[in-house]
Every structure is written in C-alpha cells, then in structure tokens.
Specification:
Blueprint lengths: L3 E7 L3 H5 L2 H7 L4 E7 L4 H9 L3 E4 L6 H14 L7 E5 L3 E2 L2 H11 L6 E7 L11 E2 L7 H5 L17 E3 L1 E2 L3 E5 H7 L11 H13 L3 E11 L11 H18 L5
Parallel strand pairs: 1-2, 1-4, 2-3, 6-11
Antiparallel strand pairs: 4-10, 5-11, 6-10, 7-9, 8-11
Length: 256
Amino acid sequence: MDHMYISIVSHGNDDDIIDNLNLKEINSLSNVTVIIRDNLSSQRLSKYCSSNNFEYNSSDLCLGFGSNNNINFKVSRDLGMSDNDCFVVCNPDLNISAKMINDLFSRISGQSSQIYSINLFFDDEFSIMEYSIRKFPTFLSFFNVLKGKSFTDPYDKADLEDGSIVDWAAGSFLVFDAGLYEKLGGFDEKYFMYFEDVDICYRAKRVFFQDVVYLRDIIATHQGGYKNRNIFSKHFRWYFSSLFRFLFKSTFGIMK
C-alpha cells in the first residue's frame, strides 16, 4: 500500500471539520489525501478546504451516506488511487491524530486482510469505549429489543485481542483495500442512512471471504449523534427501513 485516501462527508459539519486540527495535520502527510464531500454546498467549508489544500466536492442534491462515499471513491480514482491503496470512510465528527494514521498505515501495509476497523472512544481520555464493532443481526435480534437490549449485539472490546475478526464495524471509520471496495461496488446506495456499513461488511464476508479485522491499538474519539433513538425522528424511520432491507437481503441471499 502506497497511499491512503480518506473520505469525509459533511452534512452541515463545517465546525467539526474546520476546528479539527488533527485533520489538518493528517492532510499534510505525504501519503494521505483527504477528500471532503459537502452534502450542503457550504461556501464557508469550500473556502476552508481551498485554503488548506483539502480535496473538495459538493452537490446541490442531498444524497445518502453510501452515495456520497461512493462519489468520493470515484474522486479518489481520478486522483490516482490504485487497487493497492486504501480507501478510508471517516465521519466528520471523528477525531484521530496524525500519529495514529501513521501507525495505521504501518500496521496494515503488507497485510493480506482487506477491511479494518479501529478502537473508538467517546472521550479524549480514551476511557469510555464506543461499542462500534458488532455481530450481524438476524430476525431473532428482535428479541433483544424485548429484553431492553440493543438490537445489534456488540462485542466486548475489553476481551478482544488486537487483530481479532469481527462481523462488522461502524462506518464512522472503516478502512478498505481499494480493490475490494471496487469489487463490492462500494456501498449499496439503496440504503439512505444506517446499515450500509453492516451490508458492505456482510457482502465482503459472504462474497469475497474478507473479514473485518479489529485494530485495538489504533484509537480515536467519535462524538456520535445516535439520532435514531428518537422514535419520532426521520432517523428512526431510516434506521428501521434500512434494518428490514438488510434482514431480508441477508436472510434470502439477495446480494448486490
């Protein structure tokens, strides 16, 4: 692997991106290119990216998570990304240091695995874990809700060793071998939001026998909105429509 392309999609996340000094330092690394996809066409964000040498693109249409990252993948290809480079999907409210990016680069260079996740925390002291790596849901997962538990079962990260295999990891930070992302056709754009990360990890495992590898020592913080927990919100509706799409797709073998 020679180069890392980091895809960030902004849905009005100007402050998250502009105030993130780590991201600015990461973008200055010789082996990293950060591509900002602006879903709201903010002039403020556009000017910031131009002044600080971020790759920037935007649209007047409000697209979903998968569609926007697929566009950034195409932009990365136009910039020269090869199959042997890596394509990283990163949320705008995620904060990772340049040192961690260099450690990540060193950790995965020369490895045969093609999808990686990292260790996310909610706080700057790295004391409160985010359970961002989970097991694939099934229709039986509805019993979790009746028990007052989360629909998708999380792994206990305290028990996982570095390099452990997991079912899926949140799209807040996912590392792909560019060649695999290409073969997968990227994210399924029929998911507007939620479960597109579950879906792509599932397809990678079932179709190309590529498992997600958990890198315990690569750490970052993630704010995480969790807007789907409000049952009266559009996020809640998106969550459940995407959930049923994944369950029917995975249960009945409908692959993209």
